Amino acid sequence: MKMLRNTVGASIDIMADAYMGWTLEYARRMTRKLAPYDLKWIEEPLLPDDLNGFMELTCTSPVPIATGEHEFTRYGFDLLIKNNAVDIVQFDMGRVGGFTEAKRVCALASAASLPVCTHAYGLPTLHFVAAEPACLMAECFPVPVWMKPEHAETDFSDGAPAPVGGNVTISAEPGMGYRFNFPIQQAAE
Question: Cβ(106)–Cβ(78) under 8 Å?
């Protein structure tokens, strides 16, 4: 982390993702060690259902704690928020129940003055983030070439636009810009 901070400088945000890999005690130690490097947050340091652990860690951590990508309902987010177990709310549009449930989660976060940073990337998420004041940014991690489909017919959409200089321009085309590549079957007459 020291090398990364020295390389990118103080003006670039750094976030770290522990992907549910730490115990509470390890997370406590790591957040103290990472504090001098001014991280914007540490994402999912504990298992998603460890509410007590998140409550304790969030109260004591010198680095903000983001979680929620494995939370599926507003009720789970309500518990995290009401129990001060999260600093940055981070739901996944594909897991949380789509636009309606995501709006409800944002309302809970906004009422508690907590920022939202969506997990993952894609056209629905980008359109949601652009329209939702509680969202401070959209997470983006490029898909490595080796994970992309080998054949165009297995790719069901044309994908989300790539960020340029940290910004994304989204289409105003109806349907969020999706163009499906599979043939539509005509009804038999």
Answer: no
Does the annotation count 70 as an active-site position? no
CATH number at residue 27: 3.20.20.120
The string of pLDDT tens digits covering residues 95-128 is 998 899 999 999 999 999 999 999 887 788 888 9
**Does residue 153 register a pLDDT over 80?**
no
Choose the catalytic residue: 70, 119, 127, 151.
119
Range of the domain at 93: 2-150
Domain count, the chain: 1
